[in-house]
């Protein structure tokens, strides 16, 4: 679609969500040269639901790797293996940013303070077949933290 100004318009289409559960073991080390620290949080599994993909997050198939910069911004680099309901294995790598909210400004969800910004762009490695659209579609995502049990909900949108 081309707008009145001649620009190509982009729209977002909701395609699926993942609920990723985390193990209590976390590893954070630093300070690193130049400041900041590095973190690692293993996933214990999860679920996938939505109009274009359903299935599960394969237990113990990956983790969130967080580079906590000196300014407090967390650079996200998470890796997981997904399994669609039809058995197709799909590798996902989310890369993006989590910006903590300033003290007193965080939205609370179930009593847990939410980041001010939690966005990412995933890439996929997927075999030929019904889910190969993931490997040729630009997808963006937004995250939300949850507690009891410790998990995140990642919502994915295809850019159209």
Structure commentary:
The chain is mainly beta. Helices cover 0% and strands 55% of the residues. Strands 1, 2, 3, 4, 5, 6, 7, 10, 11 and 12 form a 10-stranded antiparallel beta sheet that branches.
Keywords summarizing the entry:
55% strand, globular, 10-stranded antiparallel sheet, two-stranded antiparallel sheet, 160 residues, mainly beta
Number of strands: 12
- Helix percentage: under 10%
Q: What low-confidence regions span 5 or more consecutive residues with pLDDT below 50?
A: none
Q: How does the helix and strand content classify structurally?
A: mainly beta
What is the H/E string? EEEEEEEEEEEE
Q: What kind of assembly state do the chains in view correspond to?
A: single chain
Annotation field: number of helices? 0
Task: Give me a quick take on this structure.
This protein has 160 residues and is mainly β. It contains no helices and twelve strands. Strands 1, 2, 3, 4, 5, 6, 7, 10, 11 and 12 form a ten-stranded antiparallel sheet that branches. Strands 8-9 form a two-stranded antiparallel ribbon.
Which helices and strands occur, and which strands form pairs?
Elements: E1 12-22, E2 27-29, E3 37-49, E4 55-57, E5 63-68, E6 74-84, E7 89-99, E8 108-109, E9 112-113, E10 117-125, E11 139-146, E12 151-159
Antiparallel strand pairs: 1-3, 1-12, 2-3, 3-4, 3-5, 4-6, 5-6, 6-7, 7-10, 8-9, 10-11, 11-12
């Amino acid at each position: 679609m081309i707008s009145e100004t001649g620009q190509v318009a982009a729209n977002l289409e909701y395609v699926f969500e993942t609920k990723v559960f985390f193990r209590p073991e976390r590893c954070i080390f630093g300070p690193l040269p130049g400041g900041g620290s590095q973190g690692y949080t293993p996933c214990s599994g999860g679920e996938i639901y939505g109009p274009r993909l359903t299935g599960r997050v394969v237990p113990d198939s990956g983790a969130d790797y967080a580079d906590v910069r000196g300014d407090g911004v967390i650079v996200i680099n998470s890796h997981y293996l997904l399994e669609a309901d039809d058995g197709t294995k799909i590798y996902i790598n989310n890369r993006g940013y989590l910006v903590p909210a300033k003290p007193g400004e965080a939205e609370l969800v179930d009593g847990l303070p939410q980041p001010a910004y939690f966005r990412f762009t995933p890439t996929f490695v997927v075999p030929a077949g019904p889910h190969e659209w993931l490997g040729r579609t630009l997808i963006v995502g937004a995250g939300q933290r949850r507690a009891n049990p410790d998990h995140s909900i990642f919502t994915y949108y295809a850019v159209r």
